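Sequence, please.
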């Protein structure tokens, strides 16, 4: 078997939440440049263009950012991103099994609708709690580190303070509705697809419950999630990054995009979105399964009598 063996005892809630948060942070650190490139492509056409700078494709965007702003620009907003994952992933992923069991009354073999409901529930709960970290992350990723270009924020704490002072609590929770919509879609698609693919692989004995199985399941979940969630993701990014008054609401933002840029605007940054979500899912789910199992091994050793 490749990797650690599954635990004989189901992991408790604390183990699942801790391992989900840790795995999501690992995935963010590895894939963050792709996420930053995705944000820059999504807001292109909305922000005033800086002379001589235009982004073309995910790797072209990364190359342009390194050339014009330096390699550190690829990790703009990483601190807020890690804060977001610690709050966000631990809730939406860590609570998923427990919420699913709650809806089924503890019965095994939950149906697809129950899994979707559980994914939507934990996704909405996570956004409601962690939204300010997402707002700060997106704004850091959107700002350019260029001479002569004014920076909106100089640090994570300063960004939280500035948004609160200038836009109030509503500014910190700006874009909550499209983000809840997006993450309900992402969470239920991501977790349910991973759940179903993994279950089918194990049921038909195609692979055992190890790293290759987790890799295939996570890759499939990443692709399906990108297709479904990309339009909402673009609207969310633009709306959260917009200055006060630019859009009346998330729906107004979507309508403005449709009328000014056409329907293809909703799939801007699709390739980096897929590269990011696909790779993020692979790293996160593989790490999650292994960290969870490692924590259960450690827990068993600690609790074992000397």
């Amino acid at each position: 078997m490749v990797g650690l063996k599954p635990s004989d005892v189901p992991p408790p809630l604390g183990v699942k939440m801790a391992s989900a948060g840790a795995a999501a942070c690992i995935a963010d650190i590895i894939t963050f440049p792709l996420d930053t490139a995705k944000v820059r492509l999504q807001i292109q056409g909305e922000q005033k263009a800086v002379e001589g700078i235009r982004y073309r494709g995910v790797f072209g965007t990364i190359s342009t950012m390194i050339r014009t702003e330096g390699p550190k620009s690829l990790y703009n907003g990483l601190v807020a991103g890690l804060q977001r994952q610690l709050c966000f992933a631990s809730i939406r992923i860590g609570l998923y099994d427990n919420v699913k069991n709650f809806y089924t009354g503890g019965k095994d073999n939950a149906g697809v609708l129950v899994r979707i409901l559980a994914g939507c529930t934990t996704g909405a709960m996570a956004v409601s709690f962690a939204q300010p970290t997402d707002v700060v992350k997106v704004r850091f990723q959107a700002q350019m580190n260029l001479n002569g270009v004014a920076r909106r924020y100089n640090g994570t704490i300063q960004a939280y303070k500035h948004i609160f002072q200038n836009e109030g609590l509503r500014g910190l929770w700006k874009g909550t509705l499209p983000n809840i919509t997006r993450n309900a879609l992402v969470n239920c698609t991501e977790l349910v697809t991973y759940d179903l693919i993994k279950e089918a692989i194990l049921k038909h004995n195609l692979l055992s419950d190890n790293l290759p199985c987790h890799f295939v399941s996570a890759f499939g979940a990443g692709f399906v999630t990108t297709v479904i969630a990309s339009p909402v993701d673009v609207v969310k990014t633009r709306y959260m990054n917009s200055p006060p008054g630019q859009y009346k609401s998330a729906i107004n933002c979507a309508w403005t995009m449709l009328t000014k840029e056409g329907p293809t605007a909703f799939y801007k940054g699709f390739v980096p979105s897929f590269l990011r979500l696909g790779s993020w899912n692979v790293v996160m789910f593989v790490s999650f399964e292994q960290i969870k199992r490692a924590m259960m091994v450690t827990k068993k050793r600690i609790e074992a009598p000397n």
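Residues 23 and 83 are 13 Å apart (CA to CA).
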